[in-house]
Design a protein that fits this description.
The structure is a single chain. By secondary structure, this protein is of the alpha+beta class. A hairpin with a 4-residue loop joins strand 8 and strand 9. Helix 1 runs antiparallel to helix 2. The longest helix is centred in the C-terminal third of the chain and has 65 residues.
């Protein structure tokens, strides 16, 4: 029974840690696309406090090479996706967070890439964090400089980005394991202390009962 009392909190603690510290890593987008193929424009903004509820809408803007102004090309909010520029009509798919208004991945997938898609892309997270007594609004932006080529070449930036992604994921998993071990040791120590207190109480009760019995025998004599 005592072992069960220790094991149950450990399982609950592991579940809590797993749910509250999801693996979110801010990995930079690739920057080289191949003409005629599809391309994922990555945009990730992780919340600094995962335990706080939040809601976010996303907007994407594009500035072609040689141009000065950005144009609004895409929006994603609680009502779903909307393509804002006819140049990208039927060529953009949502590739980010799904089934949640608390968006942390705002990536989009660009279909049938052309050389005219080269340029600068910016995504904006318009995020609201819900605290007990107030709401906090924040805006986070990310920039992707896209180059379209005729044939794929794997650049140094792409390799470094992929390596950093795996390093981040492994680091998060190691941290999760350390936190689970710390939680287990803390609960186990509390359980051992409770067992020692119970044993001491039982010992004192037995000693008191023995003393009473001895007193009773002496009175009888």
């Amino acid at each position: 029974m005592a072992a069960l009392r220790i094991l149950l909190p450990v399982l609950l603690c592991a579940s809590f840690v797993y749910q509250c510290h999801g693996a979110c890593a801010e990995v930079d987008s690739d920057t080289e696309a191949v003409a005629g193929a599809g391309f994922k424009l990555g945009c990730i903004s992780c919340k600094r406090r995962s335990e706080v509820d939040g809601s976010a809408t996303v907007e994407w803007y594009f500035r072609a090479k040689g141009e000065v102004e950005f144009v609004h090309i895409y929006t994603y909010n609680e009502y779903g996706p909307a393509i804002e520029n006819e140049r990208f009509q039927d060529r953009v798919d949502w590739n980010g967070s799904k089934r949640s208004n608390d968006i942390q991945d705002a990536s989009i997938y660009l279909l049938n890439v052309t050389f005219n898609d080269s340029g600068t892309y910016r995504c904006f997270f318009n995020r609201i964090l819900f605290y007990d007594n107030y709401e906090y609004n924040t805006v986070v932006s990310k920039v992707v400089h896209l180059t379209v080529v005729a044939k794929a070449t794997r650049g140094t930036a792409s390799i470094v980005s992929e390596v950093m992604m795996y390093v981040s994921i492994i680091g998060l998993q190691v941290w999760l394991l350390i936190e689970m071990i710390y939680c287990y040791r803390k609960i186990a120590a509390a359980g051992e202390e409770a067992l020692r207190e119970a044993a001491n109480a039982e010992y004192l009760a037995i000693a008191s009962e023995s003393k009473d019995n001895c007193a009773g025998v002496q009175v009888g004599e």
